[in-house]
Amino acid sequence: MKTTLKTALAGLATCLAFTPALAEDIKVGLLLPYSGVYASLGQDIDDGFALALETYGAETGATFDLIREDTEVSPPVGLAKTRKLVLQDKVDVMAGIVSSGVLGAVRDMVHGSKVPLIVANAGNDEATGESCSPYVVRLSFSNGQVNRPMGQWMFDQGITKVYTLAPDYAAGHQMIDAFAEAFTAAGGEIVGQEYTPFRKTQDFGPYLTKAQASGAEAVFVFYAGGEAISFVKQYDSFGLKTDLPLYGSGFLTSSLYVNAQGPAAEGVITALHYVPTIDSVENKDFVAAFTEKTGRIPSEYAVHGYDSARALIEATKTGASDRETIAAALGKVSFTGPRGPLSIDPATNNLIQLIYVYETVAGETGLTQKVLATLPAQQDPVNGCVLK
Ligand code: PHB
């Protein structure tokens, strides 16, 4: 009897050892600005994330428990919320972070605790450069990646002298630096540049006067959120658009707020890794599903959320279910999503993706994005990253 039981137990143990893992419950911490100037960006990311879980979640045996924390746009608040998710909630993985400043503040906590973080917006180059980590994987973009290709493209359009403007914080500097480096390498000249106090500049007039007097043939800027709305409107009301065409990083005329800019945004040419008018089956399906769910056209932020959750699902499909295995699997993810084919660069954990140059034009039901060029997939330089 004893022997039989023993044998049966041994048999059961062997059986269990070879049985695939049962469905896992994965705890996901979402770190997003649900309040403050970037709240609408955070909401789009959250809605995109939830949509991908609904669409692809069933492909994996896992279930996902979401714990949402509001980072505001504050590095200390972001860090406190990350600590809570890691230490108190004991999440398996985190996703989110909109501001480069918040990402900079939480990086060491993420790296030290070995809890993987899927970056769903913040573009600071160093997060996948000198401060890279095997636990930080980016499913959004890097500041350099989005702006660098515009340097050559604008020069190829015959523009040789440019004036630049951006808010005076990490993202503003990195976006302009990448553009300026590529534009000058192509043969162009930056005839002047200015950084405006972040979240404090209401009147861009003095800067626009300088740009007008600079001898530039075009202006290239980065602004996002509320600042993008007021900048584009003021640029138009200064009457500059015809003689001094406005170019920029595509966040300037994001589909999230372009209709708040109205006709002032017409004719502005920018570059980004996603626009809702990309002509592909994957994108059309996504736009239809997101619009049905939320009543809004998805922005690049919605796609960051969607692709972040999709990456998590792809990782769990390989059997990953805890912090270490999820981190390792995330670094190997690749799929074709709404923005096109994308993969994670094994050297940096940043993604490799196409960049679209687009013009904001009047459409049948408001402003829309006319794609002027699809630039080859961009892979950032390693920038001192050693993944360990
Ligand atoms: C950033 O801080 O990295 C950032 C914020 C908003 C954007 C893009 C980048 O639209």
From TrEMBL:
<feature type="signal peptide">
    <location>
        <begin position="1"/>
        <end position="23"/>
    </location>
</feature>
<dbReference type="Pfam" id="PF13458">
    <property type="entry name" value="Peripla_BP_6"/>
</dbReference>
<dbReference type="InterPro" id="IPR028082">
    <property type="entry name" value="Peripla_BP_I"/>
</dbReference>
<protein>
    <submittedName>
        <fullName>Branched-chain amino acid transport system substrate-binding protein</fullName>
    </submittedName>
</protein>
<feature type="domain" description="Leucine-binding protein">
    <location>
        <begin position="26"/>
        <end position="361"/>
    </location>
</feature>
<comment type="similarity">
    <text>Belongs to the leucine-binding protein family.</text>
</comment>
<keyword id="KW-0029">Amino-acid transport</keyword>
<keyword id="KW-0732">Signal</keyword>
<keyword id="KW-0813">Transport</keyword>
<dbReference type="InterPro" id="IPR028081">
    <property type="entry name" value="Leu-bd"/>
</dbReference>
<dbReference type="GO" id="GO:0006865">
    <property type="term" value="P:amino acid transport"/>
</dbReference>
<dbReference type="InterPro" id="IPR051010">
    <property type="entry name" value="BCAA_transport"/>
</dbReference>
